[in-house]
Amino acid sequence: MRDIKELEKLANENRKRIINMIYKAKSGHSGGSLSIIDMLTAIYEIDVNFNENPRSRVVLSKGHTVPAQYAILNSKGIIKDEEMSTLRKINSRLQGHPSIKDIPEVDATTGLLGQGLSIAVGMAIAKRNKNDNHHVYAIVGDGEMQEGQIWEAMMQAAHYKLNNLILIIDYNKLSSYGDVNQSMNLEPLKQKVEAFNFHTIEIDGNNMEQVVNALYESYEVKDKPIAIICNTIKGKGVSFMENNPKWHNGEISDEEYKIAMQDLENKE
Amino acid sequence: MENEMICLRDKIGEFLCEFAKQDNRIYVIDSDLAKSTKTLQFEKEFPNRFVETGISEASAMSIATGLASEGMIPFYVNFAIFVAGTAWTQIRQAAYANANIKMIGTYAGMDNGKDGASHHANEDIALVRAIPNVKILVPSNVKEMKEAIKIAIEYNGPVYIRIARDNVPNVEFNGVPEMGKSTIVKDEGNDFACFYEGTSATIAYKGFEALKEKGYKGKLINIFSIKPLDLELINEISEKVKCILTIENHSIIGGIGGAIAEVLAQKPTHAPIRFIGVKDVFTESGTATEVKEKYGLNVENIIEQVKSVIN
What is this model's ipTM? Predict the structure, then answer.
């Protein structure tokens, strides 16, 4: 098992990359990138080896939080340091949402919410038929759970008993509008997911130890797809962003940037 | 009509099975309509490569994208209205990724006559044609249909194949269908050139014969490849004939008439173009023949349109 402290350190470095990118882009989704980065860092560190083919796949269905994925790909050397300041800019590979035509390692072209879990179902069926034992992860936002296609794909994943499919729900409780459950109530979420025949694990998604334990538990599941409901804090790690719906999307000022980087450096 | 009338839809399962025997990357995805789309045979022969999604077209299309990204060649086979309409943004995302997905839309245009306007796919060409990267093929006979599937398998990227449910004349065809190529099936003069897409073959042939009886000598062209278009042929013909006629089992907005008009409009001069198809209205229930007849796909309309230009 990977060292928790080491993973926490990597996640914090990725947080800094996220803030740097969005600050320079003067646009981008900070809140949801920061809430999912602990889980995303752990998945890539534990289960994704870019030198392998085939390998485990990660579909970032909540594609607007692609700075989190770019941060990890930068840490792996797939996105070069000089590219990191080109997010959302013309002539850049770093599109506003994941695009495999630009960066194949993002694994799926997403951005229109609701579609990524189905893509992951297709990948998982193919992998099983090819006797490829790697996993397929679908990272879905809580607001995205309001999309009907997600529930279609959940039926299909369970119908085909895709135990190589791991659905990660980033339950940070906030969407663009504000309180996600006020715009459309997801609760009782865990019971719903369980009722759709998923092996369901609920954790604090910003607690690295719980994140890692949940992943290892997933790998042992037979005959069912897995869902990890990650209770997270939107904007986690940056004091003024935490739990503030304003930081769903937006420009970071010079002053805010300084505070954010200070917050993250204090965690080292 | 001298040619045997056949239902191309009936061959979908058979041809896919034939190709799947040689290529284990081929999958079929179904949304509870395998009985109608004739892919049941595939399910029997290749149960592991047949993915039933239930009635969930959007998810089915994205599942196809996922299968393709793992190296498979998935065919999503369904009614044209569901493929091109219900799952449109899913096609668009797949096309943006240039995913190697194949779509077969059958019950095209008004072929699903009795089910009524809700099920008439009179906009599928327009919807799919507007999406970058997707190729569109419309076979009009058995040989072309098999070749269209073969072309789709060999091409790396999204392909939409529009297949008739209604009967079409199984015209003897000696050429080799190609992406980006249309075929002149009859060449008897330069009064008019009539372009048709495969699912409107029956009325195109009838119209051509009726025009001949009225003394108009023209050309009949099977478009086959709607995207990309055979620009060379269209440009060449438009300079020779007095009238261009397009016939489609589709709305006259955004279909083959629109596609050809987009080409011709860029020329300083060209023959006038007339459109045979559904005129920006919703249709109704009836037999496929009755509905098509009532909504513009009839011989009288064809003669009238040609006369309006030539006389």
Answer: 0.97
